[in-house]
Amino acid sequence: MLWRTLLTVLLSGSLLQGDGMRLTFLGVGGGRWVVLRQLRASGGMILEIDGQKIHIDPGPGALVRASERRVDLCDLTAVMVSHRHTDHMNDAIASIESMTKGATTRRGCFISTRAVIRGDRENPPILDSFHRGKLRKICTMSPGKTMMLGKVSIKATPTKHRDAEGIGFVFGGEGMRIGYTGDGEYFPGMEKHFMGCDLLVMNVLRPRTDKWPGHMNSEGALDLVKAARPGQAVMQHFGMKMIKGIAEKEASWISGRSGVKTTAARDGMSITIGRVPEEKGRKPLERFLE
Ligand SMILES: [Zn+2]
């Protein structure tokens, strides 16, 4: 909430003591060409909150990007996939392997849509039976559904995207709310799902001049931020037209028009609210990476 005025944006690697949340961007790339050429990384995000460490949308290269950022995936408590597109789910199985210590320990939670977990008429499930058996919990989410991960509440939000089952999330923990839109264009009423968020993460593929049905551009992001009024907003999931400094200009345009501080995330950036307990796995990992 606003009383948490101590908010710092810093590069990952810093170790903080205490209570709070940290969101690390293993990659801010989105869409076809940025991801395929790795013009921006596509490893997803790591959310650490209230004793949980959640890998959200592990796209291609997630393990490599985690290693580069000294983020240990072996102590994850959950892996989440918002929808079944490659840039969001490609490394989900590799991330589950990490969470289950190389599939030797039954642990962790996998959270996603029915199409990802069970498949649909045209597609097999992304979660195979071997890894299914290594997970302690599998949660099938759809818009409006809420679950608990330890003390953290997770609510699925609707999207308007090519994957009709795609979802976003709102996390509640440590007295704060973190929203994530997932992929999809802005639609009237979307804001009601993200009201009261301290931080809103938006997947903004294109600048305001460029509309593409099913995907959010900066104009849609402005509409969302103006209506939802989060404590602050951050954009990621950038396509070709958002790289080379454009995303930063769009973020500043949204800030100016909405009065809500909006930034463009960078590969490897972390946003910290409050104080985060020291990551146990980080020091041991350093030993192996030297
Ligand atoms: Zn998508």
Topology (SSEs and partners):
Blueprint: E1 7-11, E2 20-25, H1 32-36, E3 45-49, E4 52-56, H2 62-68, E5 78-80, H3 86-89, H4 92-99, E6 109-112, H5 114-118, H6 129-132, E7 137-140, E8 146-149, E9 152-158, E10 167-173, E11 176-180, E12 199-203, H7 218-228, E13 232-236, H8 246-258, E14 262-264, E15 269-274, H9 282-289
Parallel strand pairs: 4-5, 5-6, 6-7, 11-12, 12-13, 13-14
Antiparallel strand pairs: 1-15, 2-3, 2-15, 3-4, 8-9, 9-10, 10-11
Helix pairs in contact: 7-8
Could you please describe the fold and organization of this structure?
The chain is built from 9 helices and 15 strands. It has 290 residues and is α/β, with parallel strands linked by helices. It has a single domain (9-289), classed as Ribonuclease Z/Hydroxyacylglutathione hydrolase-like (Metallo-beta-lactamase, Chain A). The strands form 2 sheets. An 8-stranded mixed sheet has the order 1-15-2-3-4-5-6-7. A 7-stranded mixed sheet has the order 8-9-10-11-12-13-14, covered by helices on one side. The longest helix has 13 residues, at 246-258.
Attribute tags:
290 residues; eight-stranded mixed β-sheet; disordered N terminus; Metallo-beta-lactamase, Chain A; binds zinc ion; seven-stranded mixed β-sheet; alpha/beta; 22% helix; 9 helices
- Per CATH, the architecture is 4-Layer Sandwich
Low-confidence stretches: 1-18
Strand content: 25-35%
What is the fourth-level CATH superfamily? Ribonuclease Z/Hydroxyacylglutathione hydrolase-like
Strand order of the largest sheet: 1-15-2-3-4-5-6-7
What is the average per-residue confidence, as pLDDT, rounded to a whole number? 91
Shape field? globular
Bound compounds, please?
zinc ion
The CATH C-level name is Alpha Beta
Strand segment count: 15
Distance between the termini: 39 Å
Radius of gyration: 17 Å
Estimate the helix proportion, in percent: 10-25%
- How do the helices and strands follow one another from N- to C-terminus? EEHEEHEHHEHHEEEEEEHEHEEH
Tally of separate domains:
1
Query: Given the helix and strand composition, which structural class is it?
Result: alpha/beta
How can the largest sheet be summarized? 8 strands, mixed
